[in-house]
From TrEMBL:
Enzyme Commission (EC) number: 3.6.1.27
Miscellaneous notes: Bacitracin is thought to be involved in the inhibition of peptidoglycan synthesis by sequestering undecaprenyl diphosphate, thereby reducing the pool of lipid carrier available.
Organism domain of life: Bacteria
Catalytic reaction annotation: di-trans,octa-cis-undecaprenyl diphosphate + H2O = di-trans,octa-cis-undecaprenyl phosphate + phosphate + H(+)
Record has Lipoprotein as a keyword: no
Transmembrane segment boundaries: 91-109, 121-141, 195-214, 226-247, 259-280
Source organism phylogeny: Bacteria, Bacillati, Actinomycetota, Actinomycetes, Mycobacteriales
Protein name, per record: Undecaprenyl-diphosphatase
KW Cell membrane (keyword) present: yes
Record localization: Cell membrane
Amino acid sequence: MVESMTWLQTIVLGVVQGLTEFLPISSSGHLRIVSELFWDTDAGASFTAVTQLGTEAAVLVYFARDIGRIAMAWFRGLLDENKRGEHDYKMGWYVIVGTIPVGILGFLFKDQVRTGARNLWLVATMLIVFALVIAAAEYYGRKRRPIEQLTLKDGVIMGSAQALALIPGVSRSGGTISAGLFLGLTREAAARYSFLLAIPAVTAAGLFSLPDAFAPAGEGLNASGAQLIVATLIAFVIGYITIAWLLRFVVNHSMYWFVGYRIILGLLVFGLLGTGVISAT
């Protein structure tokens, strides 16, 4: 029997989603861990996807000017080939092309993403493994190229990295920002493109998951419409604050802070699993 979500769970999970969506620490992994640790259950992939609409709305509001400028340049370029040399026109295509990998893989493996991929042994493993990937990107990345030097090749590579975040524990922003650093982008440039790249994919996933979030068939907690709205609004407000903080943080601080946190959390989850305090599924 599917359990109904409580209002305490709604508020806590909305806060967790808002805090972790844009940080390279995996929001889906944190929602899975928090749900299991405090309530011995799983909020579910559908609830996660729907509340991500709140954090993506925060991206739309925060980057409204950039998004409007890119969209206008893209449409102008479609109508006038003389406008196709503009960076914003190209950026529109980079976001579209970069979204393709996660769209294809998300569709092909949606059942695995909702079930086996949420095993906490896997989540803990991915937290640690991708902490090492982020550390390598920070260490080897030259961090010289601004976002104006982004290319189609960069978009494809970072889009492919975004697709890895279908596995809880990887982190969408962690994957894309790391790929950007390996490509020589500055931290701020990689983070900005990461935010823009997430908009179509995460929005589509959230809308697609709405029916399942209202009536999950054995998958996660059953949240009411009011609870989904409240959790999404909380995620929006906190997500907006997190975006502003992260963009300031990455200018003067390395990604090693997040690496240390991920490793500690991954080891903690391994310990809790090994001692039977929490269940992997």
